[in-house]
Amino acid sequence: MLAPVRTVSTTNGTSPLLTVQPRRGLVDEKFQIVITNLLPNQEVTLHSLHQSEDKDFWEAFGHYISDEHGTVTVAKDESLGGTYEGTEQMGLLWSLRPVPGSRSALRLRKTNVLTPLVVNISVYSGHLSQGFSKTPVLAMTVTERWYAAPGVQRVNIRENGVRGTLFLPPGPGPYPGVLDLWGGGGGLVEYRSALLASHGFASMALEYLSPDELRTADVDVSYFENAYQILKNHPKVQKDKMAMLGLSFGSAITFSMAAYSTIIKPQCCVCISGSHVVPVDKSLFEVFEEIKKNMDKVRVNEDNHVIQRGMILPIPSDPAQKIDVGRIKCPVMLVNGGDDQNWASVESAQDIEMMMEKAGNRHLLTVLTYPDAGHLIEPPYTPHFRATNFILQEMKEKIVMLWGGQTKPHAYAQEDSWEKILAFFQEHLYSSSLKAKL
Amino acid sequence: MDALRINKRPKRDQDLEYGLHQGMEDALSPLCMVGIRILNYLDNCLILAQGHGRSVCKLPPDRFNGQQEGTRVGVQYKTVSGLNPIFAACVREVECDLAGESLQHRNDINLGKQDIHVAVTQLFVSRTVSTESRRCPLLTVQPCRGLVDEKFQVVIKNLLPNQEVTLDSLHQSEDKDFWEAFGHYISDEQGTVTVAKDESLGGTYEGKEQMGLLWSLRPVPGSRPALRLRKTNVLTPIVINISVYNGHLSQGFNQTSSLATTVTERWYMAPGVQRVNIREKGVLGTLFLPPGPGPYPGVLDLWGGGGGLIEYRSALLASHGFACMALEYLAPAKLKMTDVDGTYFEKAYQILQNHPLVQKDKMAILGLCFGSAITFSMTAYSRVIKPQCCVCISGSHVVPVDKCLFEVFEDIKKFKDKVQVNEDNHLVHRNTILPIPSDPTLKVDVGRIKCPLLLVNGTDDQNWATVESAEDMEMMMNKAGNRHLLTVLTYPDAGHLIEPPYTPHFRATNFLLHKMKEKVVMLWGGQTKPHAYAQEDSWEKILAFFQEHLYSSNVNAKL
Predict the structure, then answer these.
(1) How crowded is residue B415: how many other Cβ atoms within 10 Å of its Cβ?
(2) A195 Cα to chain B: minimum distance (Å)
(3) Burial class of residue A99, CB neighbours in 10 A (0-12, 13-18, 19+)
(4) B257: nearest CA in chain A?
(5) In angstroms, rounded to a whole number, what is the distance separating the alpha carbons of residues A248 and B556?
(6) Average pLDDT, chain A
(7) Which residues make beta-bridge pairs with B141?
(8) Which of A24, A141, A436 sits opposite B143 (nearest CB)?
(9) Burial class (CB in 10 A: 0-12, 13-18, 19+), B536
(10) How many other C-beta atoms can be found within 10 angstroms of the C-beta atom of residue A438?
(11) How far apart are CA B194 and CA B216, in angstroms?
(12) For position B553, what pLDDT does the model report?
């Protein structure tokens, strides 16, 4: 084992000091990273390392030069190179990528949200770009990133055939309820709901595409209505303060429910990377069958990554092929990436706007479009994935799906959209009811 | 009787007066809002004015410009939350024409004055809305997950201006007892309370006390007596509920709805700190390693006569970069006290020193109470134990030397007649070693100590005569010529149990003196606020002392 090289500044004889504040923060919380006791104008590399639940290693790094006091302040100083450049306070997290030699097309997702993401942050002498594991560090520290704030409760939901997980904020409540729908990848993805609960929303992640338990033929409108009602009727949830949050296929479901369901009447909806160009009033099985019909429109790029965005283009003018968004009665916020290679979400948003203009409910619509962001717009300070392994539900085939986006603009989109989504929920679910009557 | 009133037949050039009937002001919380609105029965309404429930409001005539004569206005009061069904019951409306008489009294539910009072106090608006921003009170604790010795920022926003509130902390111990603390505050004109800057006007702590909600924790009324709060499992955090209540309350918190609540965690272990069981050569301990490749200075951590394996201070030291080993030396089952003599501690010290992640030449010993006595003894006499520095909290050198622990405790038993009992039947142990003997054979020869030594004592230590001992040690070291190694910190009105900061003070707690088989209540001494100060200040100085002697560059050490 190598003894650490401790650089000692001749003035005060102490080792470089690396601080990360807070050491235990929420995933969407900014941290302050400061290195002190370096030599003046010393070249250093700041490095982050994380081992995923799948045991893969992810890293990010930035090249800095200390000031005349021997200090590096990440929030103020510029990274001169690495996996991120410029003044990027959270670059060490959002620019994480698999270490060289890793398996390809990986995606980083936390399954157990009751434990934190553990990230090692280290300082190295000089401007390194590789060989970090073989180089002694000047200083290191460990920081934790949590999806669940202290006091957030996790509740399994297995009721009326509905499968989900409910996250409750701490305290007596009651709280606004949010139904959280992910996309065609399926499974029960909990982390976004845990984070919403950390911000005061009783959020239920819903599983609706499961390989074993549910047959897609069983999943139709009533499945989502059941789920919505289970959430709404929970003793800690305010019946009249409900919302839906969807990503990708989950957004399509959200449009559909908000437009047609006589039971699902949320106070507002947020749809990320979604489209209204889906067959309506069909079970999921039938929907996926329909999608299969358009598989000829799916392209593959030179890396053999699957590009699905062409499948719904051009946006049909035939209303029977689209959800009638003119029927939506609550505020809707759309969040899309300009470089979404998976769904034509930007084109869909334009068509949605046109339909709502005609129907007279355009004032309910807010559209956030982020240039050069991709499809997977998730909570901030988590990495960007341009293309990852994916199992196509309908084809049962393992492919690499191209999601799109460039890392830095995508990171910006995640940070900005999350802030706006929280503010949107705050406005529509937490404002005084006097205001609601105006 | 109706709560609301409105003047009948206001002419076009007259003020419209509306508000609460006299006598109702007291029944309603100041959070109630009285609003007046124009009703047009299309479910649209225009709120013309709002005020807080205690005032009678006047609406000047020009507010009605553009409204036709005969337009109805309604006066409504609500405890605005929309969260609780009781809320609906508080909606009362009085309608009248702008130019006409009061048309009708329309009540959602007919409540008498008593019922309104009860409904409102029960509701106690879980969310207060200020008229300007219509936001709920916001309580933030930063960081929400901190180390035990880390300060937090507690801020409440979106209150009414100059609102009386109570900030309350609640913790359930591993033993299932409830501990609480609280402070009374008044928000500023922006409706904000900043605990680090504002003064608590009463409660379990007073004045500007950023961490008062933690160090003034005490068992809730009705708890078992003489409790002590100690964390056994250091891998999990201490969980504290912090809540804001309307008004200045001193009791009944669990029956009252809070305005806002949050949960914060306090950890003894920083991220990446490792816990390692030590079971080697008969030595029982737990080693805590800082994260990273190391190596690190090593600290041997010794507690007092209560025995057991106390891990939390070692875990915290590891969070500050020291490889720290908590040592169990008074084990009821595994070790016989006749086996525990100088060699036990020497073995423990060497196990720590020889650990691959520990720097052999950067070692220290930290002791409290009897652990301090052992520290004096080992440092003075052992040929194996040669630390770079030592810290002795609430200790004394007046212990028989060169004896195994069994014999030491036998000797202590001989002093039983010097043990006093106060009026509460608490045991006062301090006089057992007074007066400090001049006979050198009764004391550890501290003149032989070769490394820097930091003593930390409380003047109100009722358990051991530590301040007197420190004076005697100073004298002995002066004579021996090693006085320059000694630093003494004496804290007025602090007691015996000087522990890491922001943990409660215990003036007297249940105690089972090892091998005495007798349960007593031991008086440790100290007053809460000075004791809290002593814990905060001494810990900072202990860490700086270790940093200086264990982390300074070798260049510095050679100077």
Answers:
(1) 12
(2) 14
(3) middle
(4) A172
(5) 61
(6) 91
(7) B154
(8) A24
(9) middle
(10) 9
(11) 18
(12) 57
Verify whether residue B21 is a known catalytic residue.
no
Compute the distance between CA of residue B456 and CA of residue B450 in angstroms, rounded to an integer.
Answer: 19
* CA distance linking residue B490 with residue B507, whole number of Å: 18
Which range among A423-432, B239-248, B358-367 shows the weakest confidence by mean pLDDT?
A: A423-432
> Do residue A150 and residue B551 have CB atoms under 8 angstroms apart?
no
Of A333, A282, A267, A299, nearest to A404 by C-alpha is A299
ipTM of the complex: 0.90
B529 Cα to chain A: minimum distance (Å): 28
B295 touches chain A (CB under 8 A): yes
- Non-local (6+) Cβ contacts of B319 within 8 A are B147, B268, B269, B270, B273, B290
CA B132-B135-B136 angle, to 5 degrees, is 135
Q: Could you read off the pLDDT of B326-370 as tens digits, one per residue? A: 999 986 556 666 677 889 999 999 999 999 999 999 999 999 999
Place of tokens 């789920």: A227
Written as six digits, the tokens of A132 are 């970090």
Tokens of A352: 């949605």
Indicate yes or no: CB of B271 within 8 angstroms of CB of A118: yes
Residues 6+ apart with CB under 8 A from A427: none
Distance CA B517, CA A349 (A): 77
DSSP structural state of residue B119: H
| Closest CA relative to residue B373, chosen from B312, B441, B463, B305 | B305
Q: Which stretch of A38-47, A216-225, A343-352, B452-461 has the lowest confidence by average pLDDT?
A: A216-225
Alpha-carbon distance of B166 to B253, in angstroms, equals 10
What one-letter code names the amino acid at A30? K
pLDDT in tens, B484-497: 999 999 999 999 99
Which amino acid, B539?
Answer: W
B258:A21 CB<8 A: no
B278 vs B24, higher pLDDT? B278
Min distance A300 CA to chain B CA atoms (Å): 43
Nearest by CB: B271 against A142, A430, A434: A142
Using CB atoms and an 8 Å cut-off, which of residues 19-78 of chain A contact chain B?
A: 21-26
Q: What is the pLDDT of residue A289?
A: 77
What does the block give as tokens for B149? 């010795």
**Size of chain B, expressed as the number of residues it contains:** 559
* Ranges A161-175, A214-228, A314-328, B172-186: which has the least confidence: A214-228
pLDDT per residue over B47-104, tens digit each? 445 444 444 556 666 665 655 555 555 555 544 333 322 222 233 445 555 543 444 4
What SS3 string covers B296-344? EEEEEEECCCCCCCCCHHHHHHHCCCCEEEEEECCCCCCCCHHHCCHHH
Backbone dihedral region of A70: left (phi > 0), alpha (psi from -120 to 50 degrees) or beta?
A: left
A392: which strand partners?
A397
Contact B146 A140 (CB under 8 A): no
How many Cα atoms sit within 13 Å of B53 on the Cβ side?
26
Contacts 24+ apart (CB under 8 A), B289-292: B289/B318, B289/B323, B289/B357, B290/B318, B290/B319, B290/B320, B290/B321, B290/B322, B290/B323, B291/A120, B291/A140, B291/A141, B291/A142, B292/A4, B292/A137, B292/A140, B292/A141
Q: Compute the distance between CA of residue A194 and CA of residue A148 in angstroms, rounded to an integer.
A: 5
Q: Which helix (H) or strand (E) holds B522?
A: strand B519-523
CB B476 within 8 A of CB B507: no
CB burial string B70-95: b at 16+ within 10 A, e below: eebbbbbbbbbbbbbebbebbebbbb
A412/A337 Cα distance (integer angstroms): 11
Is A13's pLDDT higher than 60?
Answer: no
**B234, B384, B376: which is closest to B317 by C-alpha?**
B234
